[in-house]
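Reviewers of the previous submission asked for a worked example of the structure-prediction workflow described in the proposal, so we include one complete record here. The input consisted solely of the amino acid sequence. No template or homolog information was supplied to the procedure at any stage.
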Amino acid sequence: MPTIIVRHKVGDFDTWIKGHQDRMELFAPAVSSFQTFQDKDDPNSVALVIEVTDMDKLGAIINDPANQDIKDKHTVMEPIVISVPVEV
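From that input alone, the workflow returned the following structure tokens.
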């Protein structure tokens, strides 16, 4: 179960943060937990540290056009950047 970081900007942080429960439900099939962060210098830049149970399913959820309405509702802006662990 990898831990990943997902970063993106939002149009309005207050609107986005109110959608926390929606995000928990949307990502539940692919993640076990996530933490939410806000950029100190840019309040509309956010990051999620996510414990992933199914990486393929998570990618499908993020890229599913059927979920565009929820992205719009929560003011999510593209690009959505996903960082994965690196073995060294």
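The helical segments are 13-17, 20-27, 55-63, 68-73. We consider this example representative of the routine output the project will generate in years two and three.
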